[in-house]
Amino acid sequence: MSEKAIQLTLENISKSYQGVSTLEVLRNISFTMQGGEAVAITGPSGSGKSTLLHLIGTLDSPTSGSLKVNDTDPFSLKDAELARFRNSTVGFVFQDHHLMPQYNVLENVMVPALAYRGEREAQHRRATELLDKVGLSERLTHLPAELSGGERQRVAIARALINEPALLLCDEPTGNLDHDNAMTVADLLFELHREMRSILITVTHSEELAGRYPRRFQLQQGSIQQTKTG
């Protein structure tokens, strides 16, 4: 998907969970983003930040409202089509790196690309190039247990970008790192986002990290407010 065409549109997205009573997590969330834009989403614990990110990444579905990437409503797709859409369009970076301990660095980065057959040479080349960009060209055959926390998160960033996703979604990407490693990871995210002209959305409790974003949304009791514009 080209960076000139990519647009993310949320219109009145709401999410509720039904139990003994109805728990309304998100209420009427609406915003639009274009390729090359970046936004930080902040708010207290329990305000719905991760839920919103999961909806955008199609890991969960809204109770009401619409979400579109260009003209595609991913929630109208069949399961197999949705899985392929997610794998090709969305890259995730979580607080925990979620690397597979039995695979080395290069193999971990290539995992999301395994769904695409007949492109192994190109995938291997891109994985190697990404690992070079995140400063791990000498760690290709190392296992996750042989890496520092910051190095593992850099592997996770490379893995998220292997399929050149239009949407890069980060949930507390620096939450488990010390300050120096957190800033290194943040620098990499911004550098690679600018290079790819993707849409970057980051959920964070870090005021320092959020302050670096040109746009900022605050979630409070399920409602969203833009508090900073680029």
Q: Can you offer a commentary on this structure?
A:
This protein is an alpha/beta fold and 230 residues long. The protein has a domain of 153 residues: Rossmann fold (3-Layer(aba) Sandwich), CATH 3.40.50. 32% of the residues lie in helices and 27% in strands. It contains seven helices and nine strands; from the N terminus they run E-E-E-H-E-H-E-H-H-H-E-H-E-H-E-E. It has a six-stranded mixed β-sheet with strand order 5-6-7-3-8-9. A hairpin with a 2-residue loop joins strand 8 and strand 9. The longest helix has 18 residues. The radius of gyration is 17 Å and the shape is globular. The two termini are 24 Å apart. The mean pLDDT is 91.
* Integer-rounded radius of gyration: 17 Å
Strand percentage, roughly?
25-35%
- The CATH superfamily name of the domain at 7-96 and 166-228 is P-loop containing nucleotide triphosphate hydrolases
Largest sheet: 6 strands, mixed
Secondary structure: number of strands = 9
Q: Please give the alpha-carbon distance between the first and last residues.
A: 24 Å
Supply the CATH class of the domain at 7-96 and 166-228.
Alpha Beta
Spatially, the strands of the biggest sheet line up as 5-6-7-3-8-9
Helix content: 25-40%
CATH architecture of the domain at 7-96 and 166-228: 3-Layer(aba) Sandwich
Question: Helix- and strand-based class?
Answer: alpha/beta
Mean pLDDT: 91
N to C succession of SSEs: EEEHEHEHHHEHEHEE
